[in-house]
């Protein structure tokens, strides 16, 4: 069947038509932007380049045509991320339940090594229900592990030493930046307090709006000190509310105290040996803890599996999708051990697609992740990962993890997709300038800016600025949709369908906001395309019918 699949992909795509649906072809010219209504902008990423002049993934078009009156099968999608709000109104019916586990009896009924794992597993918690909210950066772990060895000349491995030196350099850069951030946020808090004290003589109760501050400035045009404080407070109200200052202060302090502290043991709460992959007796079954701090997983779950035809109009990919929640992320970098074990858990417990929007610049145990990817391939499970938000050309900077190759060499498996981020501008700004890119590592692009999705709290939604995490989630949704409606297709086949069926944009785009030298969008990834659900389903239907 693999040879037949390769043969089919070598035939021009014009032959891949199911019924009378027309394939969305290559886009070679910049397209004028139509006026985007608030309603359309809310879910722009589901729109269509032909029908709406928006470079979305054409999910609405797919549902209005190909999937109309069709039924799919339930599909389990593992979301390897932070905690997820399992009680959210648009997600509460979209979670996988482990039917082989008796709830809360403190017995591992299915003998899978995880007691009372009803919706998944929390790898960053302990048996007492505590979560590790701040962990080391991987560069910190590298230094912690090898500082004394290289200082004492105990290791002669030149490649390992080169990686150590790179980590040491990156550590110094991050430490300097963290110290600057700490000073800056302290100054912001100090300046805001000064302006509050000054303005207290004009507003006795301490409450005022920007409009009231503007009126005060107009009434005292000759008072330069008042003008200064009123303007400064207006900016604080807009950009630095008290809650933001508080959370930024905590983040800045913890970055120095924990993320960059080589003396900090970030497994002390979990109490496992992070250097031993066989030490698996850790974590807990609470997958929705500390949601006020760990919101990312809920954002991604909403993009994949929010109820269709809901009151907010978000619309996930399918009501057939069931989310398996696997929490491994907090503030800092994920441990390779947790990544590997979470992949294996997902595979062993029935997930057919894994969403993994995590990323870091170094990897102490990439071999564990490679083995987990190969294990997933053996069990026919597709893994989707975000490209990262560092604006790196990964053809040059080829150490961004997790990936599926060593030094831009041969891929270790054929079930892994790495996704970059695109925007809703069908012009020179189509590329999201924060996204990593490169024809070796990045397989495909998907929408990743100004995303509206679910947030923790029962009826909570918001726009998020986006990132390749969103691009990853949307690609995961397309993969799950294909697996639901065409279950005879393999993970490898679906990977290539997603890559080959995307819409190719060939016009030049900026790689930075102020870039005068532009690059054709189709040169930024292996496929040169943006994921398209409509095209993917046409191809999936054709290939499925040949098997």
Automatic annotation (TrEMBL):
Q: Which residues form the signal peptide?
A: none
Q: Which residues form the Peptidase S8/S53 domain?
A: 72-501
Entry keyword annotation includes GTP-binding:
no
* UniProt source species: Olleya sediminilitoris
Give the Pfam families listed for this entry.
Peptidase_S8
This protein's name? S8 family serine peptidase
| Residues forming the catalytic site | 81 (charge relay system), 296 (charge relay system), 469 (charge relay system)
The top of its lineage is: Bacteria, Pseudomonadati, Bacteroidota, Flavobacteriia, Flavobacteriales
Q: Which UniProt keywords are present, listed alphabetically?
A: Hydrolase, Protease, Serine protease
Give the similarity note.
Belongs to the peptidase S8 family.
Give the domain of life.
Bacteria
């Amino acid at each position: 069947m693999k040879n037949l699949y390769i043969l089919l992909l070598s035939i021009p795509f014009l032959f891949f038509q199911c019924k009378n649906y027309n394939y969305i072809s290559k886009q070679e010219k910049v397209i004028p932007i139509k006026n985007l209504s608030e309603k359309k902008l809310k879910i722009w990423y589901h729109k269509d380049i032909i029908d709406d002049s928006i470079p979305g993934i054409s999910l609405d078009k797919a549902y209005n045509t190909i999937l109309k009156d069709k039924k799919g099968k339930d599909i389990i999608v593992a979301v390897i991320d932070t905690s997820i709000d399992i009680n959210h109104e648009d997600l509460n019916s979209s979670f996988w339940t482990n039917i082989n586990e008796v709830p809360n009896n403190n017995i591992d009924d299915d003998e899978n090594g995880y007691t009372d794992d009803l919706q998944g597993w929390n790898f960053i918690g302990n048996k007492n229900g505590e979560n590790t909210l701040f962990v080391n950066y991987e560069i910190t772990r590298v230094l912690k592990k090898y500082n004394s060895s290289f200082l004492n000349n105990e290791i002669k491995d030149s490649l390992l030493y080169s990686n150590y030196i790179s980590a040491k350099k990156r550590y110094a850069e991050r430490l300097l930046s963290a110290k600057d951030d700490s000073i800056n946020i302290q100054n912001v808090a100090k300046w805001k307090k000064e302006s509050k004290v000054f303005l207290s003589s004009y507003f006795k109760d301490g409450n005022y709006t920007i409009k009231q501050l503007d009126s005060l400035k107009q009434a005292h045009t000759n008072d330069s000190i008042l003008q200064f404080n009123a303007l400064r407070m207006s900016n604080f109200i807009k950009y630095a509310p008290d809650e933001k200052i508080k959370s930024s202060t905590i983040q800045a302090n913890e970055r120095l105290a924990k993320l960059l502290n080589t003396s900090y043991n970030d497994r002390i709460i979990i109490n496992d040996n992070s250097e031993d992959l066989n030490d698996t007796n850790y974590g807990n079954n609470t997958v929705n803890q500390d949601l006020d701090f760990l919101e990312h997983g809920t954002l991604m779950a909403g993009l994949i599996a929010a109820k269709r035809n809901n009151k907010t109009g978000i619309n996930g990919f399918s009501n057939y999708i069931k989310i398996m929640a696997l929490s491994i992320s907090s503030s800092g970098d994920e441990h390779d051990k947790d990544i590997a074990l979470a992949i294996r858990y997902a595979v062993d417990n029935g997930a057919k697609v894994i969403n993994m929007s995590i990323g870091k610049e170094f990897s102490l145990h990439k071999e564990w992740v490679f083995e987990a990817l190969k294990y997933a391939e053996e069990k026919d499970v597709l893994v989707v990962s975000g490209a990262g938000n560092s604006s790196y050309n990964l053809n040059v900077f080829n150490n961004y993890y997790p990936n599926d190759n060593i030094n831009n060499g041969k891929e270790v498996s054929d079930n892994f997709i790495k996704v970059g981020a695109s925007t809703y501008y069908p012009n020179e700004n189509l590329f999201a300038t924060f996204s990593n890119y490169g024809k070796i590592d990045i397989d495909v692009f998907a929408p990743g800016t100004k995303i509206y999705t679910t947030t923790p709290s029962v009826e909570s939604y918001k726009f998020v600025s986006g990132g390749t995490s969103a691009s990853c989630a949307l690609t995961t949704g397309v993969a799950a949709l294909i697996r639901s409606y065409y279950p005879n297709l393999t993970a490898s086949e679906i990977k290539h369908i997603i890559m080959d069926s995307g819409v190719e944009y060939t016009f030049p785009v900026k790689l930075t906001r102020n870039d005068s030298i532009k690059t054709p969008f189709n040169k930024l990834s292996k496929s040169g395309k943006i994921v398209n659900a409509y095209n993917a389903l046409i191809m999936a239907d054709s290939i499925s019918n040949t098997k």
